Amino acid sequence: MSIESFTDVAIVGRADQILPYRALGMTTHAVTDAEEARDAVTALAKKGVRLIYVIEDLAAYMQDLLNEYATSTFPTIVPIPASTGPTGYAMKRLRQTIKKAAGTDIFVGEDEAGTEEQGQAGTQGRV
User: Fold this and answer.
1) How do strand 76-80 and strand 51-55 relate by DSSP bridges?
2) Which CATH superfamily is domain 6-106 in?
3) So what family is this one in (predicted)?
4) Domain boundaries, the chain
């Protein structure tokens, strides 16, 4: 099965963070805190939404829920950075998921936040 339209996709976050996604036609759920975000994700999953994006600072407070859905086909719940900048949680979660699926860390040379790690004295790899 494929995602047929943006109605199969939703985003959960604070109102100012999700406004641009509404302009794209995505289903948006504005929340004020992590508990409301958890309730929104649960409701969307029960409604049959296949892909749910959650702003990463809220997703960090619902790891148990993310883990619960990680073993099912749908919904796929993806933490994404907010427009105010990444906290590193989304990249860490993506890295763990890919490492589990691929059996190896494909982000070798990058730290948990997804930035390149510097070698000894910051000179490794420079010409």
Assistant:
1) parallel
2) ATPase, V1 complex, subunit F (3.40.50.10580)
3) Belongs to the V-ATPase F subunit family.
4) 6-106
Question: pLDDT band for position 6 (50/70/90)?
Answer: low
Dist CA 99 CA 57 (whole Å): 22
Tokens of 5: 């339209």
Residue 89 in tokens: 């949680």
Q: Is the pTM of this model over 0.85?
A: no
The whole-angstrom separation of Cα 89 and Cα 56 is 6
Query: How, if at all, do strands 51-55 and 27-30 pair?
Result: unpaired
Q: How far apart are CA 70 and CA 93, in angstroms?
A: 11
Q: Would you call 68 helix, strand, or coil by DSSP?
A: helix
Q: How far apart are CA 97 and CA 111, in angstroms?
A: 15
Q: Letter for the amino acid at 32?
A: T
Residue 10, phi-psi category: left (phi > 0), alpha (psi -120 to 50), beta (remainder): beta
Place of tokens 């929340």: 31
Return all residues near 70 (Cβ < 8 A) that are at least 6 apart: 77, 97
Q: What one-character DSSP code corresponds to residue 23?
A: H
